[in-house]
Amino acid sequence: MAQRLMVRRLLSLTPRTLPPQGPLAPCAPPGRLFGTSASWRSTFNVQDGSDFQDRVVNNPKPVVVDFHAQWCGPCKILGPRLEKMVAKHEGKVLMAKVDIDDHTDLAIEYEVSAVPTVLAMKNGDVVDKFVGIKDEDQLEAFLKKLIGA
Amino acid sequence: DYDLIIIGGGSGGLACSKEAAALGKKVMVLDYVVPTPLGTSWGLGGTCVNVGCIPKKLMHQAALLGQALQDSRKYGWQYEEQVKHNWEVMVEAIQNYIGSLNWGYRVSLREKSVTYLNSYGEFIEPHKIKATNRKGQVTYHTAETFVLATGERPRYMGIPGDKEYCITSDDLFSLPYCPGKTLVVGASYVALECAGFLAGLGLDVTVMVRSILLRGFDQEMAEKIGAHMETHGVKFIRKFVPVQASMPGRLKVTAKSTEGPEVFEEEYNTVLIAIGRDACTRNIGLDTIGVKINEKNGKVPVNDEEQTNVPYVYAIGDILDGKLELTPVAIQAGKLLARRLYGGSSTKCDYINVPTTVFTPLEYGSCGMAEERAIEEYGKQNLEVYHSLFWPLEWTVPGRDNNTCYAKIICNKHDNNRVVGFHVLGPNAGEVTQGFAAAIKCGLTKELLDETIGIHPTCAE
Q1: Band of pLDDT at residue A5, cut at 50, 70 and 90
Q2: Mean pLDDT within B71-98
Q3: Is the CB of residue B234 less than 8 Å away from at least one CB of chain A?
Q4: What would the pLDDT profile of A29-66 be if each residue is shown by its tens digit?
Q5: What is the pLDDT of residue A40?
Q6: Which residue of B has its CA nearest to A112?
Q7: What domains, with CATH codes, occur in chain B?
């Protein structure tokens, strides 16, 4: 998809009506606040390869990794739903979000073809995965299996 | 390091790379989009996917749906709301789709084990290129064979204010705000298609034309397209060229007549420049390795096997001198080239009788020669032209234009009345033309056409 690189340049071209927040630039919001402070700690956006290494691969706790994209409709539904289910477990499992356009190398390394793809990682290994949207019960079962096993 | 390095990840480049990789070769593709003066850039896939055919057809469809909504009341649909169009919603939906295509190409390259670099490639010595990525990091790569598939970018006018204030098709399809009152400069199919759908979405559109419409296309058809657009609200200013774009308040354009001293001045929200496209061959080090280009237009002359004057360098797609600028042509050329290089094939790309369609509000599909070209080739006395106006059944109830849709075939009397040119102006022209292109490839004659029973009720019959 198209990106606009020079925000300042474009904004200087008034007086045309420009949207107040500026052009469409892909920006992943920080982990969505979902009421409880536990969710703020349980979900994070992966910054780069070494961040992934530190916070996902080397994490003593199990981590679900949500590979998503700006242009993917189902991802926008699954993301918040998964965050909510993860938050319910109060820190026993964490959630990492990876935008596949920003971190393509990572997506390729983990063989992501379609999005959303969710991996369950424990001790650096992929122990489970699913592709596409799931409802809350299915997500709960997925998380329970990851934590319990 | 590689068997094949392809510079350019568009329709041609990707098709060639996947075919070569399927034949077991070690392939690399470089794709890099130099941002527009406004800063617009895009992902893997080339012009067609990002700023060409795909978004164009989707926006054309958006405009057609607007027309359909108008027609629907005559067919009995009743609704209270006033229908209006939201530009931002359309652009977001289209850009999301394009994003999925960009990703799809990344995945398919990976699946075929093609190495992909989002870097700008330049030749620095024979068989070796320098690749620079967005962050300025440089790597070097060598290959036995190279394919140039760098495509083109819109040309600017070279007048004051063009790069600062005007946009091109590169920017239009992801424009974050509605273009509003628009001036389209140019009479190419890009200009007319864009003017067409912008008007169809309800915008105030003016087209500024230096001389003729759709140069290179059948002129009778071109004039009919223009006439239809005019009756549907697109303003045309013929025989004028812009000389300045400035921004004293709104965007002001000053233009001069090509025939006299008259000057024209008007203000617009957006000026879209669509006067032509230039091949991206100037800054990739071709002179370093001796590849000749046509200095006038920057295009690359090749033999009928797409080989340049340097034996290990080939070229495909829009950059070829004297060949058609169409995605399916580039794809076909790329695939066949890979098969000839590595698959032992000798099939060459056939550039004759390639069908095409212009997606103006009234669509124009054609295959074979324009009437002017046929007269040049065969002589007027040796040709017979069969033509007809027609009124699509679906247009009768809503009372849409009668005597506007038109079809003609140009036959060579000395060759069994062989069809050498097929032209149709009407809805779904692309869908209609495709089948006839296959028939023309099989040597369609007037007699065969007469013997083919029509499907009723359709425009195609």
Answers
A1: low
A2: 93
A3: no
A4: 444 444 444 445 789 999 998 999 999 999 999 999 99
A5: 57
A6: B107
A7: 2-151+280-343 (3.50.50.60), 155-275 (3.50.50.60), 362-451 (3.30.390.30)
Mean pLDDT computed over B265-291: 94
pLDDT number for residue B253: 93
Average pLDDT estimate for B63-89: 93
Mean pLDDT of B143-166: 94
State the residue for tokens 């007037």: B446
Name the catalytic one among A72, A131, A133, A147.
Answer: A72
Nearest CA to B314 out of B294, B286, B295, B288 is that of: B286
Inter-chain CB proximity B38 and A24 less than 8 Å: no
B105 in contact with chain A, both atoms CB, cutoff 8 A: no
CATH classification at residue A122: 3.40.30.10
For residue A113, list chain B residues with Cβ-Cβ distance below 8 A.
107, 111
Identify the CA nearest to B173 among candidates B114, B249, B99, B90.
Answer: B90
From chain B, the residues in CB contact with A101 under 8 A are: 43, 99, 102-103
Interface of A with B in 88-127 (CB under 8 A): 100-101, 104, 108, 113, 115
In this structure, the strands spanning B251-257 and B263-268 are: antiparallel
Three-state SS at B141: strand
Rounded distance between C-alpha atoms, residue B253 and residue A112, angstroms: 49
pLDDT of the residue at B374: 95
Confirm whether A30 is domain-assigned: no
For residue A7, the distance in angstroms to the closest alpha carbon of chain B comes to 8
B25-35 confidence digits (pLDDT tens):
999 999 999 99
What's the structural domain count of chain A? Answer: 1
pLDDT value of position A7: 45
Which of A1, A9, A10 lies nearest to residue B102, judging by beta carbons?
A1
Contact A24 B174 (CB under 8 A): yes
pTM summary value: 0.88
Between A10, A19, A115, which is nearest B38 by CB?
A10
Mind telling me how many Å the CA of B190 is from chain A's nearest CA? 19
Query: Could you list the residue range(s) of the whole structural domain that residue A49 is in?
Result: 43-147
Q: Is residue A53 part of a domain?
A: yes
Helix/strand/coil for A23: coil
Cβ–Cβ under 8 Å, residues B362 and B426: yes
**What band does B13 get if pLDDT is binned at 50, 70 and 90?**
very high
Report the alpha-carbon distance of residue B167 to residue B418 in Å, rounded. 44
Q: CB-based contacts of B342: which residues, under 8 Å, 6+ apart?
A: B3, B20, B23, B24, B25
The partner residue sitting opposite B41, judged by closest CB among A3, A71, A100, is: A3
Query: What average pLDDT does range B378-396 have in this prediction?
Result: 95
B447-461 tens-digit pLDDT: 999 999 999 999 999
What span, in angstroms and rounded, lies between the C-alpha atoms of B319 and B298? 8
Question: Which of residues A20 and B361 earns the better pLDDT score?
Answer: B361
The reply to whether A72 falls in a domain is: yes
Ordered alpha helix ranges (H), B23-86? 46-51, 53-72
Helix (H) or strand (E) holding B79: none
Dist. CA B206–CA B215, nearest whole Å: 19
Residue A12 lies in a domain: no
Q: Give the amino acid at A53.
A: Q
**Residue A14: is it exposed, middle or buried by C-beta count within 10 angstroms (0-12/13-18/19+)?**
exposed
